[in-house]
Amino acid sequence: MTILVTGSSGHLGEALVRTLQARGREVAGLDLAAGPFTTHVGSIADGPFVKRCMAGIETVFHAATLHKPHVGTHMRQDFVDTNITGTLNLLEEAVAAGVKSFIYTSTTSVFGDALVPPEAAPAAWITENVRPVPKNIYGVTKAAAEDLCQLFHRNQRLATMVLRTSRFFPEEDDDKDVRSGFADENIKLNEFLYRRVDIEDIVSAHLLAAEKAPALGFRRYIISATTPFTPDDLADLRTDAPRAVQRRVPEYAAEFARRGWKMLPSIDRVYVNERARTELGWQPEYDFRYLIGRLARGEDTRSPLARLIGTKGYHARSFTEGPYPVE
């Protein structure tokens, strides 16, 4: 086998395996949970298990992780074991196996408190130059794993890249006020303006990263839908987001009105994907303007891949309020 995908029973892992298999590639899937796209069931925190899985592998897509939804249900040590120790095990064995590309799926959550500007300030323009200020164990462990990737590139010359993905999960929002104030599709479409990306576009970014990592060396990229905004919009976004959206995508108003949807009154940050588009040649298709066009034509706003994967959830049990406990 030439490609290893960790987290292959999850949203992104499954999307990667499906896409790679459709292209005729030989893929091994590793996950703690069994699934139709998982060939190796076990924990990445288990070093000998990881060593066995890495035999014959040339490319690693490391998507396995404990996520934000697990913060309220798992111990902090669980996050360290999976997100840090698990990543270290994979990096060690990737070097030993002579892996050519190691792509680590991180998250824009590593930015933490840097995402929220002071009360009277404009919205934050988030590029890779913004210094992360993690605010929970999820962000801390993901940031630490990013640094491990950088270390292995520096000292072991492993071709590694970090892709900080924004929101892409299809589950309902974890904010009670947002859930009660907006239709779910309305929420997610609004987020494509500043902090959401379709899983099909995430997959294409990962494939490009694996192709270009040996030549480019270590890089960190924000992987989010292309925003219609510029820095000139940041003040309006914080105080009157509908005005900024109307200026950049005026056709949205009629489609929202037709459905009784609402625009957010304020947007506090904008993720910028320019570096990934420039350096990787990434061309994400699903952005706010494109999706408004799909709405106007009566089409589903989700990509075929997103529809195929559907909703998985993050826990084996349900909760009395919301998709998961919020810490």
From TrEMBL:
Pfam families: Epimerase
Superkingdom in the source lineage: Bacteria
Span of the signal peptide: none
Occurrences of domain NAD-dependent epimerase/dehydratase (ranges): 3-212
Protein name (database record): Nucleoside-diphosphate-sugar epimerase
Organism: Phyllobacterium trifolii
